[in-house]
Specification:
This protein is mostly beta strands. The chain is 0% helix and 47% strand. It has strands at residues 2-6, 9-11, 17-24, 33-38, 45-50, 57-59, 67-72, 77-82, 91-96, 109-113. A six-stranded mixed β-sheet has the order 2-10-9-4-5-6, with no helix packed on it. The chain has a four-stranded antiparallel β-sheet with strand order 1-3-8-7, with no helix packed on it. The N and C termini lie far apart (37 Å).
Length: 115
């Protein structure tokens, strides 16, 4: 099992980014997927989740209306579109299949929000 996150970078407040998560080693289309983030000195937090077929979406209150999770099962890839970025969104972003055992984490992708 492997998760490869990409798309992070430096963006000004109010800017946008699209993160990607390429998954391999398991049947991607059968698993719910989630995005998490961890800022320096803070615990990892759940940002958004999507059901296996992509019909059910959940977003944390802190990102609701600004971030959108999606997936393409044909490409084994999940996305996180992030608009109106705020300094508080700066973190390393990770993807994961919460119900997949054993638990595996990728290297994450760093998002920096600064003017």
């Amino acid at each position: 099992v492997q998760f490869v996150e990409s798309g992070g970078g430096l963006v000004q407040p109010g800017g946008s980014l699209v993160l990607s998560c390429l998954a391999s080693g398991f049947t991607f289309s059968r698993y719910d997927m989630s995005w998490y983030r961890q800022a320096p000195g803070k615990e990892r937090e759940l940002v958004a989740s999507i059901s296996s077929a992509g019909y059910s979406l959940k977003h944390a209150d802190s990102v609701k209306g600004r971030f959108t999770i999606s997936r393409d099962n044909a490409k084994n890839t999940m996305y996180l579109r992030m608009n109106s970025l705020e300094p508080e969104d700066a973190a390393v972003y990770y993807c994961n299949a919460p119900l997949l055992v054993p638990e595996v984490w990728g290297q994450g992708t760093l998002v920096t929000v600064s003017s």
